């Protein structure tokens, strides 16, 4: 398993209180994917209501708070495919 994915899963689970209402996927280029749902975050690559894609550097910046999710989306550093409302809810998890 990728150390980046393992660390990201730990960080996301620390931020999620009671899981996530829906199914979301973070695709980290060159690393793999992380799933978020009612049971929390885990490494996986399944169907999701919303998929967010970014480079490793952007994703790490999102988790550390150095990169604003909205700004990353508006500048093309974060791609969103699927339910935009659910993507907005993820913004609070990442902030």
Automatic annotation (TrEMBL):
It comes from the Bacteria. Pfam families: SCP2. InterPro entries: SCP2_sterol-bd_dom (IPR003033), SCP2_sterol-bd_dom_sf (IPR036527). Residues 22-94 form the SCP2 domain. SUPFAM superfamilies: SCP-like (SSF55718). This is SCP2 sterol-binding domain-containing protein. It comes from Albidovulum marisflavi.
């Amino acid at each position: 398993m990728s150390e980046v994915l393992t660390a990201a899963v730990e960080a996301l689970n620390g931020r999620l209180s009671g899981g996530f209402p829906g199914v979301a996927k973070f695709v980290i280029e060159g690393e793999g994917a992380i799933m978020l749902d009612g049971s929390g975050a885990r490494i996986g690559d399944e169907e999701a209501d919303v998929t967010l894609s970014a480079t490793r550097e952007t994703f790490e910046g999102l988790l550390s708070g150095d990169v604003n999710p909205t700004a990353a989306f508006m500048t093309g550093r974060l791609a969103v495919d699927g339910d935009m409302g659910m993507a907005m809810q993820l913004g609070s998890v990442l902030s």
